[in-house]
Amino acid sequence: xxxxxxxxxxxxxxxxxxxxxxxxxxxxxxxxxxxxxxxxxxxxxxxxxxxxxxxxxxxxxxxxxxxxxxxxxxxxxxxxxx
Length: 82
Fold this sequence. Notes:
The chain contains four helices and no strands. The chain has helices spanning about 10-20, 25-30, 50-65, 70-80.
């Protein structure tokens, strides 16, 4: 039986989640450019992923990486859906 190897990459997960949540890329675009599985902080196939918590988690992460432009965009989008 072949072992499944999974290497967790938090930076990639957060960046991919940001790209999809902001509409910059689709799941298919990310998967076509990468050989790894797509791991997100939300389930893009469910309506509930647009809840404020996803935005808050991404904003908190991008504050820690000092990517404030992304925080500003996420806060704007969060306020649009609430």
